[in-house]
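Handout, tutorial session.
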Amino acid sequence: MISVAIDGPVGAGKSSVARASAKRLDFIYADTGALYRGVALYAVRNGISENDADFADKISAILHEITVELKIKEGDQRIFLCGEDVSEEIRLPEISMAASSVSSVPSVRDFLLDLQRDIAKKNNVLMDGRDIGTVVLPDAQLKIFITASPEIRARRRFEELINKGVETDFEQVLNDLNRRDYQDSHRTVAPLKMAEGAVLLDTSELSFEQAVDRVVELTETIVERNRT
């Protein structure tokens, strides 16, 4: 099986590029960030705030109650939390911020680690997140770090939210993105960083199609090498 690990900051286009690339390659696409968002949604629904002094303890205490699954429905990945399809709700800005805090809790990372690795063991997979190449799949045959400037990433996220009918403003999105970047790169457990040997793909000046073409090209090189 071939594993492609894609990491990068929020709003870099990882999920969209990875999803489209996996479809062209006939690989399984695994959005690990969605798993953390699922746990974050459960915490928010149960009144647990990232500002709680005992936040990590509260999160750890509810993990036994949670089931979070990746399922493919009509060719699209859907996230199920305790049997409920929450694929749209986990994309709300407040859940995105909560997910950053949830992902810094060691017990949550342990909780989801085996699930992520099991997907890669059973499938040719293109998996994206923030610590895939460094922690989850350190032996992946291909590692890619996708990024773009903060302003461009904020603009993309702003337009995505507006298209979904979520009321927001650009400055708020940019501020949230910068705060998320800081949290992700400075957390104690599995901080966001470029994995050793990873290919840097800056999409600031690339169209979506160009970014997908590059990921597909890199992956096909690995696939061909694996055949010989």
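The second record follows below. Compare its token runs with those of the first.
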Amino acid sequence: MNKKQIAKLGVTLGLVGAVGVGGTLALLSAQSNVVTNTFAAGNGIDAAEDITLFEHIPVENAEAKDNPVTNKYNDGSETEYKELIAKVGVSYSNLEPNMTLDKDPAVQISEGTADCYLFVKVDSSKFTGVVGDVEIDGIYNTGEEGYKAPNWHLLDDDQNIYYYQVGDNKVIDTEAEAFVSDPLFETINLGMNAALYNADGSSALDDTDNIEIKAFIVQATENGNWEQAVELAMNENSWK
């Protein structure tokens, strides 16, 4: 065999080797298991079920208090019977000067709701503007003796927005049980000079002369988002 033939043979063997690697003599291989990451959001907030703004209907009749009516919040949970719960407000009639009206708006947040911050907004401008001599007991966080809502704190005086805080903690945690706030206030006091009547003796009030209260919750994130929650609460569009 001359050198030319040897060179040719070498090339042929090389080609065979190359075919073997890609075909009959394939490299060992194996496919691993597939690791799939799934992502699920935590507990959210359902406005229709997870928050209830309510107050108790004053019941003077002893028999009515014994009536086995069950109070229910928006999430369907039941409360211990105290007096009937009103979710749309209470109507007051036969008002007179120097009268005290029971009114105790409070908020329930259902069990399992996402950690959140709680705000309320009170618009009494129309009612107090007409009547004049009116005091809403407990709404103002002045720290004075007799203040009845120590866990409610004024956020913005112009819009009458308040937030809920117990001690140093602003976050409402409902993992173990539902949350029920302290009443925002307990009574409305009409003064002796309350302008309830027109000059002809007719009522100075109409259906628009209301005290309107709204509640608003903002999810609290693990790394803290109080500033963002406040920004939302201060935005008028959040309350519409």
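Points raised in discussion: The first strand starts at residue 51 and ends at 56.
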